[in-house]
Amino acid sequence: MENEATISKNFIEQIIEKDIAEGHCKVVKTRFPPEPNGYLHIGHAKSILLNYGLAQTYGGQFNLRFDDTNPTKEKEEFVDSIKADVEWLGAVYDDRLYYASDYFPQMYEAAVKLIKKGLAFVCDLSAEQMREYRGTLTEVGKNSPYRDRTVEENLELFENMKNGVYKDGEKVLRAKINMQSPNINMRDPIIYRVARQHHHRQGDAWCIYPMYDFAHPIEDAIENITHSICTLEFEDHRPLYDWVVKELEYTNPPKQIEFAKLYLTNVVTGKRYIKKLVEDNVVDGWDDPRLVSLAALRRRGFTPESIKMFVELVGVAKANSSVDYAMLEYCIREDLKLKKPRVMAVLDPIKLIIDNYPEGQTEMLEVHNNMENPELGNREIPFSRELYIEREDFMEEPPKKYFRLFPGNEVRLMNAYFVTCKEYIKDDSGKVIEIHCTYDPETKSGSGFNARKVKGTIHWVSAAHALEAEARLYENIVDEEKGVYNEDGSLNVNPNSLTVIEKCFIEPSVAGAKKYDSFQFVRNGYFCVDVKDSTPEKLVFNRIVSLKSSFKLK
RNA sequence: UGGGCUAUAGCCAAAUGGUAAGGCACUGGACUCUGACUCCAGCAUUUACAGGUUCGAGCCCUGUUAGCCCAGCCA
User: Fold this and answer.
1) Among A131, A135, A264, A502, which lies 20 to 30 A Cα-Cα from A13?
2) CB of A459 lies under 7 Å from some atom of strand B
3) Nearest nt (C1') from A265 Cα
4) CA A240 to CA A319: how far, in whole Å?
5) For strand B, which nucleotides have at least one atom less than 7 Å from a protein CB?
6) Is the pTM of this model over 0.90?
7) In whole angstroms, what is the distance from residue A73 CA to residue A96 CA?
8) Are A364 and A416 in contact (CB under 8 A)?
């Protein structure tokens, strides 16, 4: 973070600086214009933070605007969640919360203006006929037979459209541009349709709705947006965007700039797919931690800071690309590293008994919450004769360079004493169930003892005091580039990417943990108290991310 | 096969005619009350390919290849 100066400007910043230098604009106004038809995901975070960041650095403003021009897909639930997510990310829009649907009167007037200029006409072609007339990628289209209606006739017909004289789909209003254009978007695109649908915000006030290509530039112009930033698939729409802005004679023409969407390797991004996984009950909802929706990432324990760091690291460009998921993990580790307490938790326990430690005795050890950040203070943890340690921290027959516990070896119990393994007990099946050690009282942590050193340090919890909790090890739902769904609709991803550890042991200091509290479970990774499933009696932890793997056999 | 866009390391990404930044990942070493963290070192004689212009090209020109987007009354 301290090397911010070395981060070079992205291409959008360069365009903006040129625009400012050439006097096209003084300040920068941007917007995030989601359609409220789903929850936001990590890809949207890129757009939000990009738009918000630009407004910040160039002394402008950032608007949140719901592009709610198609009532069939939109719901109030989604506008609420989107607002929450945008705020969570820290993109502040103050009172600049807008709805495209509030501009319907202006859009209607704009359409009338185009008609009066002879640049729009009412067309009676059916959807199917329209498709035929439009031509194909390689063949030009042909003019609609209704293209030459008079201004007066168009005005009257359009007003009738608004007044509900026609059935849904019976007539549309089209821009009169060029049916021969190699760009299909310019072949007399539809700008208004008749659709009797209940709008989540406008109710039944309208039975005609504007199309995106017509509505969006108007929305931007009304809000004095200077730079309308969208994704690559709208590049072909830019000539139409510019056409609308020009013909409507806005004096403050906004400029559309496109950038590449964010994809993550092997995870399901895309609102469409996430939505289907939710609707098909493959996952438990929009905030299922196996997803990369913002709600899911939040529930899993990702912080807004980590998401911000991530999108900054990823950068902004025009090349389609897929970012390594490890980059996201790096960002959350980096963010939590110094911010969160490191507690001891044993996920796969095996009992360790210290034979020479007095039975029934408990001593409280004062330990640092985070060795690297003293500001997080200290806490006390109980130590006693019977402990749990991680099963992988003991081996009967250790390979070379294994320096944790094995018969005869001495290791440090983190924050406590050195112990030496004397013997171990197996059950009938040969599974090790108990390890016996002796401890050396002189080696207590913080005592300054340095007469001898050990190579290994392992974590533990006191068996009698440990808190039982549930841990969930989520993996992302993997998309192996074959698509999330097969053509027949069957699922093509692995949804079984959830491991639940019903009973793990955590040191008692986490007893009062609240929702969203997160900890580093020493060597087991970062975990967050699940906001949905935790109760004071039973803590449920979602794993945010693992630490890098430890000992590897060569 | 029409139009638009893109191509720099395993993954992102900078370099705007002056001799290939940075990050992630990975590898080696040092350190360590965890093998994590931190630190140090290594990691593109070359920018999809082939030509050309130039004293000099990832950048300019020509051609080729590959990928993405567009034929909703969705956004």
Assistant:
1) A264
2) yes
3) B11
4) 23
5) 1-8, 10-16, 21-26, 33-38, 67-75
6) yes
7) 24
8) no
